[in-house]
């Protein structure tokens, strides 16, 4: 088995008579972590097709509907670094499990919501649970799979969950809303959350606690404000335009909060994110690469969804099926990259993946006006494959550059920049579609800019991602 060689100790496969138990234990941490991560990302996109029905049944205002969709992502992105800091201090398994409990209970509250304000509050709490889950997920994988090859495969499968969940959200949401009702969009999280919690408590080792590291609450407040304000401004930019006073004010306040955070971190004894980590070219470069490929991929998913639903008249279910080529490639690419990384190292995989994804988006941009669907299959496959193929190496680069004591902070930084990239890609795509002379021009421009982001990420990867890590050389 792929992970048996490294689960826990990095030793070789056990004897045949104990292999089943060993294999189960080697796969269980990955299943637990991926289940939690899948829930978090699924709830970003699954809600979109349910919102019209929710608005009618709960008599929600337009503002209420916006908070139901955006409130979750605001809290999620805003508290990621806090979740990472808590994991490094209290133990990543403890914080991860707490996040799963918060997320699962708040999902049940969402499903039982009697009114729109109640649902908004439940979604905000759900976002907090998500922010506790995600940083610990990568830190727990790094702890569970110390051997470089198996760790790369684990990171690859973890990363593929994001693409699968994001693209499957509209498909699953449309199916549930049209058959059993919108409340099941949240109820499906309950069995997944319970299974995730049981697997984690049984098969994932306890993480070390560092109680001597105090939490710097002023810095925490500053970084939460910075990320939340920036995410909110990006969300509004897609609707109001980039020159809107509210958008400009949000960006300005986010910059001010970031400056306050940086000044506080320079003086703090126990920083949320040690600025010394950012001096590592692999750490800072890997974080920017994550921002760029999320910008390209989620911008593509957003604009493609609008193309299929509004321009071609596909249902939500049909749109999910139309996006399936991109989804199918993510899992295949993550497995393949995990197998190749031992031979090649991370840099060739990240560079080639980014260039392939760029080729996919450029192919869509060059496909002409109203191309037949079969002509779009190859570009979507290239984008999905390339993004997932590169994610394994970029994740390993960021996590490998951080000391074990700051694995939660490194994971939080990587995922925060990715969330900002996603929000920027969606906002820019929405702005281009709204302001272009016609829908096709806006879509093609969005795809071309996404391709440019991927090419930029490839160049950055060539400079920042190590050719071959020491762990890979040793193995």
UniProtKB/TrEMBL annotation:
<feature type="transmembrane region" description="Helical">
    <location>
        <begin position="284"/>
        <end position="302"/>
    </location>
</feature>
<feature type="transmembrane region" description="Helical">
    <location>
        <begin position="30"/>
        <end position="51"/>
    </location>
</feature>
<keyword id="KW-0472">Membrane</keyword>
<keyword id="KW-1133">Transmembrane helix</keyword>
<feature type="transmembrane region" description="Helical">
    <location>
        <begin position="95"/>
        <end position="114"/>
    </location>
</feature>
<feature type="transmembrane region" description="Helical">
    <location>
        <begin position="154"/>
        <end position="178"/>
    </location>
</feature>
<dbReference type="InterPro" id="IPR011701">
    <property type="entry name" value="MFS"/>
</dbReference>
<feature type="transmembrane region" description="Helical">
    <location>
        <begin position="184"/>
        <end position="205"/>
    </location>
</feature>
<dbReference type="GO" id="GO:0046677">
    <property type="term" value="P:response to antibiotic"/>
</dbReference>
<keyword id="KW-0812">Transmembrane</keyword>
<dbReference type="InterPro" id="IPR004638">
    <property type="entry name" value="EmrB-like"/>
</dbReference>
<dbReference type="Pfam" id="PF07690">
    <property type="entry name" value="MFS_1"/>
</dbReference>
<dbReference type="InterPro" id="IPR020846">
    <property type="entry name" value="MFS_dom"/>
</dbReference>
<feature type="transmembrane region" description="Helical">
    <location>
        <begin position="120"/>
        <end position="142"/>
    </location>
</feature>
<feature type="transmembrane region" description="Helical">
    <location>
        <begin position="314"/>
        <end position="336"/>
    </location>
</feature>
<feature type="transmembrane region" description="Helical">
    <location>
        <begin position="373"/>
        <end position="399"/>
    </location>
</feature>
<feature type="domain" description="Major facilitator superfamily (MFS) profile">
    <location>
        <begin position="29"/>
        <end position="469"/>
    </location>
</feature>
<dbReference type="GO" id="GO:0022857">
    <property type="term" value="F:transmembrane transporter activity"/>
</dbReference>
<feature type="transmembrane region" description="Helical">
    <location>
        <begin position="348"/>
        <end position="367"/>
    </location>
</feature>
<keyword id="KW-0813">Transport</keyword>
<feature type="transmembrane region" description="Helical">
    <location>
        <begin position="445"/>
        <end position="465"/>
    </location>
</feature>
<keyword id="KW-0046">Antibiotic resistance</keyword>
<feature type="transmembrane region" description="Helical">
    <location>
        <begin position="420"/>
        <end position="439"/>
    </location>
</feature>
<keyword id="KW-1003">Cell membrane</keyword>
<dbReference type="GO" id="GO:0005886">
    <property type="term" value="C:plasma membrane"/>
</dbReference>
<feature type="transmembrane region" description="Helical">
    <location>
        <begin position="217"/>
        <end position="234"/>
    </location>
</feature>
<feature type="transmembrane region" description="Helical">
    <location>
        <begin position="246"/>
        <end position="263"/>
    </location>
</feature>
<protein>
    <submittedName>
        <fullName>MFS transporter</fullName>
    </submittedName>
</protein>
<feature type="transmembrane region" description="Helical">
    <location>
        <begin position="71"/>
        <end position="88"/>
    </location>
</feature>
<dbReference type="InterPro" id="IPR036259">
    <property type="entry name" value="MFS_trans_sf"/>
</dbReference>
<comment type="similarity">
    <text>Belongs to the major facilitator superfamily. EmrB family.</text>
</comment>
<feature type="region of interest" description="Disordered">
    <location>
        <begin position="1"/>
        <end position="21"/>
    </location>
</feature>
